[in-house]
Design goal:
Structural class: alpha+beta
Shape: elongated
Largest sheet: 9 strands, mixed
Number of domains: 2
Number of strands: 11
Distance between the termini: 32 Å
Length: 211
């Protein structure tokens, strides 16, 4: 399934994805589209259902009343599902924001918490990442990240994402592009398995170089 989250105008870190009351991890049989937050659509459906119900009661049209009531109940159930469950797509988007926020804060352990045990970036493994990331972040001060594009392909517990991020630092701004492979851990969350492609501008980024 392809999900384009429509970040054409981008997100500045600090403006996180939509906050929800979600308390439960959604099971895989619930489609991501069902759990997306659609407040405008919900409002339209509720208003339409209420108007239809009111008019049907005025005209004593029993069948229309039942249809309107069903529409209202279905919309309410949809709303409650979206509030109670967080979808795999929402969790996947959120982990990107966590990694970027941790990098901006130079919080290496928080970055590492999102990497799978089998993580690799070319020849680099997870064990080599703390030193490399620390050295890279020590050489610059990240002021902000701007997410200009985010796309994901999710198949059950595997996913690929393509993300374009402009990094604002004390040395200037750098447009970057990333293609990432993820695995959804059953008792945890999405873990980054591999950096499959990375670019600064139009140039391929040397393995392990993040500045």
């Amino acid at each position: 399934m392809n999900i384009n989250l429509g970040h054409a105008i981008g997100n500045i870190i600090g403006q996180t994805p939509s906050q929800t009351l979600a308390a439960f991890r959604a099971p895989h049989f619930l489609p991501n589209a069902l759990l997306e937050h659609r407040p405008i659509l919900w409002l339209i459906l509720m208003i339409a259902g209420l108007i239809a119900l009111y008019m049907a009661r005025q005209r004593r049209e029993r069948r229309v009343q039942l249809v309107a009531a069903a529409l209202l109940m279905a919309t309410l159930c949809w709303f409650l599902l979206a509030q109670l469950f967080v979808s795999s797509a929402q969790r996947l988007e959120a982990v990107h924001h966590r990694i970027l926020a941790a990098a901006q804060a130079k919080d290496i352990p928080a970055v590492m918490n999102n990497l799978a045990a089998t993580f690799h970036w070319g020849p680099l493994t997870k064990d080599a990442m703390p030193t490399m990331v620390q050295a890279s972040l020590d050489s610059i001060t990240v002021k902000a990240f701007y997410v200009a594009k985010y796309e994901s392909d999710i198949e059950t517990d595997e996913a690929q994402t393509r993300i374009a991020v402009t990094v604002y630092t004390d040395a200037g701004q750098f447009p970057t592009q990333w293609q990432l492979h993820w695995h959804d851990e059953a008792n945890a969350d999405w873990q980054l398995v591999a950096v499959e492609q990375s670019k600064v501008g139009d140039q391929n980024m040397p393995t392990g170089l993040v500045h």
